[in-house]
Amino acid sequence: MKAARLIISAGALRESILHKIHEGYQGITKKCRAHTRESVWWSGISTEIENLVKTCPQCIEESSNNREPLIPSEFPQRPWQKIGIDLFKLEWKWYLLATDYYSRYPEVVLLTSLREVIKHLKSIFARHGTPEEVYSGTHFGSLLTSKFTQFAKEWAFKHTTSSPKFPQSNGFIESMVKIIKRGLKKSDAGYKALQSYHATPLSNGFSPAELLMGRRIRTMVPIAVKQLDPKIPDKQTVLRKEEHNRLKQNFNYDSRHRVVYQNQNLEIMSGSSI
Q: What is this structure's pTM?
């Protein structure tokens, strides 16, 4: 093993592993590499991953759209403290998405009826516990009935709705919807893509599964058994990295959109009109 990773020597086995890694990530060389850092190694694996992605037509099409989900402006202090929920439609089917703000761990449910939403949320809460706050996205408006209000009261969580006055507050759940839709578009590989997302480290160095459940999960990519032992990520390390990444993300957003803050001096060119 190399740094607790499995060293793969056989050529045919390498090809099979590359296929499994690539199957979970369409067009994301960085994510493929991040997954292998926790599992397998051989000389030249990074180059082989990059070449595979570069020669895949679907990867090329998807690469410009792949971004890590936005970091919430107010980051939670623990897993499953606050979650975001929304509905999305894909190929004439409706899905329910529930995502933890701390770990970015998504739960996805295919709906046969919109009346099932509360039942599925109860099932999700039975697995992970009841969050303190549930934020509902823009497509959830039609379900904000007295039944949902009663559900929030009975299960003791605060319900916050999206607001057109504050579009940035919608950014996290909207970015997660885009990520999940891209994965599910891969037909039978869709849930493999979802599993790969659960297992792959975020920019803070920990995977959604580690952050939510305190353990790495086993996927189709080989991994040393020792890597599957439970280990809770250090909270202060997570919070420090998240704050650093949030500031970096805000800077990049402001640079792209030329955001100007109050009291910032503006240089107006001669002849410009206001």
A: 0.78
